[in-house]
Amino acid sequence: MNLSATLATASPTPLGMEAAPPSAAAAGVSVRNVSQRYATRDGSDTVALSDVSLEVRKGEFIALVGASGCGKSTLLRIVCGLLRPTAGDVMLNGAAVREPRDDTAMVFQAPTLLPWATILDNVLFPLRMRGTLKPESAAYARALLKLVGLEGFEGKFPRELSGGMQQRAGICRGLIQDPDVLLMDEPFGALDALTREDMGMELLRIWSEQPKTVLFVTHSISEAVLLADRVVVMSPRPGRIAEILDIVLPRPRSLDQLGEPAAQAAIRRIREIIYADRKGHVQFVE
User: Fold this and answer.
1) Helix, strand, or coil here: 93?
2) Based on C-alpha coordinates, what's the Rg of the chain?
3) Contact 65/241 with Cβ under 8 angstroms?
């Protein structure tokens, strides 16, 4: 699928124009000494994140990987402003993130669709909430739904779609906002393998033509290496940054690049870190 051909006439931003360098068009994120604790029923504390610091450059694509329960989703919720950290700060454009922002969108791990609204209305819902709905917004939403294989389902309700189809609609709802910062929590996990690959490549096309700062959580090491500028490997709970890898594959990326020595080396290194975590031999990034 070709995003430019699909959306060029419907997008509120001209996708056919030459894209500005990522650093000139999006917002960066600064995570400073963030920790998060949760109280349990027995009165003890569970530490989800411990002293996490991360500087994300403007327009950068960051992937976060690690074992289940290591705090990846918690970190995204903090960056989004949905959760206040126990300690530390998150800064966006020099301002502290205290609540959800209009220039930040999140695609959740599970569909969060309104059951009483059609799929088209669900995709358009963030624009209505922000008061930014335009006459061309519906056409753009329809083009996004066509991109993810939901053409013809615009008038359906979530209960009439499978779980995977609902998640595709959730991805569209994040993209319709054209955010500066896009937070994606395992967004392709419910998709079949071929559609997941297609969506990954189309996400990269969107990112190159409409530069955004992206934080992308995934359990797929190869997906992280293929998509990201850098891969942040997190330790098991309490979540800390074990290592940050620069991915040196040239852009634009293609699936064939996963067979290149640089990609295979990165995949091996990430696995080594995760296995070292399990054995307790990991050294953390300070």
Assistant:
1) coil
2) 19
3) no
Q: Per residue in 126-167, pLDDT tens?
A: 999 888 899 999 999 999 899 888 999 999 999 999 888 898
Structural domain boundaries, residue 9: 3-16+25-279
Tokens encoding 5 = 């051909």
CB-based contacts of 186: which residues, under 8 Å, 6+ apart? 73, 109, 217, 218, 219
φ/ψ region of 272 (left if φ > 0, alpha if ψ in -120 to 50, else beta) reads: alpha
In a domain, 201, yes or no: yes
pLDDT-based confidence at residue 212 (cuts at 50, 70, 90) = confident
Can you give the pTM of this predicted structure? 0.81
**Which segments of the chain are extended strands (E)?**
29-39, 45-56, 61-65, 87-92, 95-96, 104-107, 181-185, 213-217, 230-234, 241-246
Assigned token pair, 66: 């690690």
Domain-located, residue 225: yes
The reply to whether 286 falls in a domain is no
Domain with residue 235: its CATH number is 3.40.50.300
| Span 221-272, pLDDT tens digits | 999 999 999 999 999 988 999 999 999 999 999 999 999 999 999 999 999 9
Q: Is residue 132 part of a domain?
A: yes
State the total domains in the chain: 1
* Cβ proximity of 245 and 269 under 8 Å: yes
